[in-house]
Sequence to fold (188 residues):
Amino acid sequence: MDDKPRIMIVEDEPIIAEDLQLTLKSFDYEVTRVVSSGEEAVRLAHEDHPDLILMDIVLSGAMDGIDTAAEIVRDGNIPVIYLTAHCSPDILERAKKTRPYAYLKKPFDDESVRTSVEISLYRHRAEKELKILRGLLPICVRCKKIRDDEGYWQNVEQYVRDHSEADFTHGICPECAREIYPEEFDGS
Fold:
């Protein structure tokens, strides 16, 4: 099984697209596709499910990179790094609304690409792990153990420690204290 990160390139300038593809391959990433239009990127992102998309902001066609990224991010959970030679305040404001993982200004060097890709992939993995605690957790009604993604049951404290930065301190609520130590509460 190949665990290389899978990256889609959305760039309408062939020389830049080829250079990016060679750069990514030199860092042992898999390039799933190189596409030049937003419409094609949306369709193929849903088919290929890449781990990351490098997205030029200025694209030929009806959709620019920001519109394309907005649609991909809305319909799927794929992080985007913007590539652009344009850095106007208006473009930056539009781009920020799509919550990109990075913003690389052209011309960029290989190490900037690598750093942005690595940080973005790491951040995306971390966010996916945190989302586990936001969804429904299968919990036993009797013993309060939680079933993990592999189907194993473990205690709540261990599950939360494994899936977040939270830790626990223990105490006893007043209701349980009255039940466990009724003699302390008799006559009060």
